[in-house]
Amino acid sequence: MRVLMAGAAFLAAQALAQPRFDFDATPGQLAKDVVPSEYRLALDLDPAKEAFTGVVEIALKVRRPTESIVLNASKLTASEISLIGPGSARSMTATDDNTKRQWRIGDDRTIEVGEYRLRITYSGTVQKAGEGLFMVPYMVDGSPARMLATQLEPISARTVFPGFDEPSFRAVFAITITAPTAYEVVSNMPVKTSEPQGNTTRWQFAPTPPMPTYLFAVSVGQFDALEDSVDGIPLRILTAKGKKEEALYAMEVTKKVLTYYREYFGVPFELPKLDQIAVPGVREGAMEDWGFISYNESNLLYNPANSSIDTKQGVFELVAHEIAHQWFGDLVTAASWDEIWLNEAFATWIGGKATTRFNPAWEIPLNQVLWRQRVMSGDAGPATRAIRSGPVYETAVFDVFDAVTYTKGGAVLEMIENHVGREAFRRGLAAYFRGQRLSSATAGDLWHYLSQASGTDVAAVARSWTDQKGYPLLQARVTCSRGGQTLKLEQQRFSVDGREDKTSRWQVPFAVSAGSAASRGLLLSERSQPFAIGPCTDSPLLVDSSAGFFRVQYSPEHLHRLAKTFSKLPPSARLALLTDTYALGQAGRIPLTEYFALLDHLHPARDAATLVLYMQVESALSNLHAAVYGSPAQRALEAYAQRKLAPMLGRLTWTVTSGESAVEQSLRNKLIEALGKFGDLETLRRSKALYAVERSGGAALDPSLRPGILANVGRSADAGVYSDLINRLAAATRVEDGWLYATALSRVEDPALARQFLEVMLGDTVPSQIASWLPGMVAGNLKNREMAYDFVLGNFQVLAGKHSEYTRPFLLSGAASGFNDATRATALIADQKRLLGDAGEKAATEAAAAIELKSRIRVRESASLATSLSRATAGKR
Fold it and tell me: Sorting pLDDT into bands at 50, 70 and 90, what band is 590?
């Protein structure tokens, strides 16, 4: 308690900056003078057409006299507008403000305070990219088919209907859809009636609870449906015809996590049904629309005969994440885009908890440490932001849907949970849902309920993590005097570019342990603070960063003591030591050779902890390879990587056996691809041989080996192999297979064939949701990085026209991802600015920061690494 109260005045002042939800005070472009309560929305939709028509009638409350009603509309054309008030109807016109994506509706007369209905008849356009109401072309049994689907978050609802398209404007939706009778229509709520009307059917749905516009969803198509129920809730997973059996695993996951969340939160699922749909192309990722969750097919379907273990794990994790949003985001909605982390960080956090609960052998807590590393690298650079980074303008709203929001936000919540205690945290969340049900929330609301449940000032700790950039480096000094051990921690912001920042300060919950002794939870609240740990021990103290979002740097002597006991440390401690040492070496705070010295203590074994540690090694060596590529250290690193990784693959063997863990299968595949990239001749030979057997009609590649093997085959492809892979890509009817073959083709090293594959992106062979990321994938084969970048520059307008507003900024920045020269970072920012203006700034600055980090490592470390790794490979360390 003494530590919690330290600096109480400072912490109380911080907490005041996070007020609770107030509708009128919530930021946004729309005024609060006019508020909707209900949308009666009727749409005429036909998958065969590229346009649609609609009528929306919005129940409004005018709270103050106004000259016009301002709402959101984009890419729509109004044909008739009327305002219906007590006893009269007024004809209105709309002035279109394209820059704000708004209509200003009025008739040059004052609209007085009162209740009205605004009726708008309009038409719109079906999109080709995965935003708004979009078209999905696909194949069924060799014949073309189409469906319509929606992706409205964050600001695409206004392309489907005029409305108040900001999160705080919750309203009821009463939806009617007319579509050709051959198609089924699905939306957020159950069907009330479906009435045939000649060649069309009119579908009417039950009204929704009050919800924001971005959660409206509709799909029109010919579906197969897998049906089940849990806790009395009807469940369906909709697929393209012939694929519903591949939804069996997702249905199993759905039933588990729905029950788990109900029990964990103490709050039931709100709606009378839950549908999910596997969209066979176009859309990216998934979307948590209330009662009707939408996924790209590859994120929801799992076929044991064809899918890898990574696909299976991905399905569980994403379904758990999206269903969590039915509480975080749908039942309670972030008040504004400024607070979107409340939706996404919580879904990340509880989704990981659910995945761990049902799959303990997957080692999710350890894997989460690995997933955070890339985010931590970016968050330690100049192109980062705070989780709550201030006003989010609609022109930059996509910028906050990033790893800082999702991954860092989830990690911060885990730290807070550990700090206040799991049961108190859980009670606070239950109160949060009850208190803010069918409303909006801010960070202030969350801290209010958590503080009440825990009896601590949660905001005081939380704000230091949510409202400032970056994260701390804890410099640890351990002393032993008169039989007692003292740990002194000094914090500063961790930086990968050498910048000093000793003004930022965090409230850091952490755990310290020695050897096999139980860890002890503490809180660092000052810039520099000593902690009396207890009696001196033979085992060195370790501050476990694996359960937090910070780095730890020990004195050289203490680091060497830890290294000597490395194999005896708990798994999380070993992983924390590896990741921190590598990050400190990247930043130039210690020699990178210290990381390789730790690796001397890591040897092949099949226990889960060792497998995850090898995943860290594979990732670190791959990242370092990209940094030193083209320098004297490149060949030495490749030889070292072969020597370090090949024995682990040998221990696993190339044979998948019954009862193997998911971690074993995943690591084996990663090692196969990595060793191929590092030039291991035996791995490349064996990959080609297994592929040749399958290609000639023999045994098919094991699904758990297929991605790595095909990547290696693609890397060394000749014209015949390239043609085979292109044909497989063109014939693929499963999105997962499309990703598989496109990834293999992106690895092609032959310049002529790589150029040929890039040209394919200009046509329709590669689905748009895959093509968006291909320039970066091709640039990942470092031999072709210049070609990939020049190709995007030369064809930018054609490529940009195929992609959504969200994915467009990643075309050029992704193509630059293979560079490790700081001059290319400068060029990227200039090129992106010229092509996309401010819309591409964030993606470019983040990519440029990553290039600059690699450049610094190459310049600083290549000579010493070339010498030390050559000696290590020769056994002379």
Answer: very high
Spatial distance between the Cα atoms of 11 and 34, rounded to a whole number of angstroms? 37
**0.90 exceeded by the pTM?**
yes
- 697 Cβ neighbours under 8 A, 6+ residues apart: none
Q: Residue 802: what pLDDT?
A: 84
Burial class (CB in 10 A: 0-12, 13-18, 19+), 603: exposed
Residue 149's DSSP bridge partners are 134
The mean per-residue pLDDT over the stretch 80-109 comes to 95
Tell me: the pLDDT tens digits for 215-236?
Answer: 999 999 999 999 999 999 999 9
Q: Which DSSP category does 844 fall into?
A: H
Q: Is the distance from CB of 530 to CB of 565 less than 8 angstroms?
A: no
What average pLDDT does this structure show over 120-139? 96
Please tell me the predicted confidence (pLDDT) of residue 10: 33
Q: How far apart are CA 539 and CA 564, in angstroms?
A: 10
Q: How far apart are CA 542 and CA 545, in angstroms?
A: 9
User: For every residue of 813-829, which 3-state class applies, written as one string?
Assistant: HHHCCCCCCHHHHHHHH
Q: Which helix (H) or strand (E) holds 202?
A: strand 200-205
What average pLDDT does the structure give for the chain?
94
CA proximity to 483, closest of 446, 410, 557, 533: 533
- Averaged pLDDT, 27-53: 97
Separation of alpha carbons 44 and 10, rounded Å? 57
- Sheet containing 76-85: give its strands across: 69-72, 102-106, 88-97, 76-85, 114-125, 51-62, 34-44, 172-180, 200-205, 191-197
CA–CA separation, 124 and 139 (whole Å): 26
User: Could you report the per-residue pLDDT of 421-433, keeping only the tens digit for each?
Assistant: 999 999 999 999 9
Reported as a single tens digit per residue, the pLDDT across 854-863 is 999 999 999 9
**pLDDT mean over 273-277:** 98
Q: Which DSSP string corresponds to 737-795?
A: HHHHHHHHHHT---HHHHHHHHHHTTTTSS-HHHHTTHHHHHHTSGGGHHHHHHHHHHT
Please say if 322 is a catalytic residue.
yes
Instruction: Output phi, psi for 493, to 5 deg.
Output: -70, 130
Q: Give the strand pairing for 233-240 and 274-279.
A: parallel
Least confident of 118-122, 161-165, 533-537, 628-632: 533-537
Residue 1 has pLDDT above 80, yes or no: no
Beta bridge partners of 36: 60
Q: Tokens 């659910």 — which residue?
A: 354
How much is the average pLDDT of 200-212?
A: 98
User: In whole angstroms, what is the distance from residue 641 CA to residue 271 CA?
Assistant: 52
Given 57, 166, 284, 322, which residue is catalytic? 322
Instruction: For residue 724, give every residue at least 6 positions away whose Cβ sits within 8 Å of its Cβ, in sequence order, or none.
Output: 695
DSSP string, 296-336: EGGGT---TTT--HHHHHHHHHHHHHHHHTTTBTTTEEESS
The span from the CA of 846 to the CA of 753, in Å, is: 30
User: β-strands 528-535, 218-221: how paired?
Assistant: unpaired
Residue 15's pLDDT is: 37
Contact (Cβ atoms closer than 8 angstroms) between residue 842 and residue 808? no
Looking at residue 171, the DSSP 8-state letter turns out to be B
Q: How many residues does the chain have?
A: 877
- Distances in Å between the Cα of 460 and the Cα atoms of 215, 307, 456, 470, 506 are 33, 46, 9, 17, 10
Query: Cα–Cα distance between 832 and 812 in angstroms, integer?
Result: 7
Encoded tokens for 194: 């479906």
Distance CA 684, CA 744 (A): 14
Residue 673: what residue type? E
By the 10 Å C-beta count (0-12 exposed, 13-18 middle, 19+ buried), 406 is classed as: buried
274-279 vs 292-296, strand pairing mode: parallel
Backbone angles phi, psi at 554, to 5 degrees: -100, 165
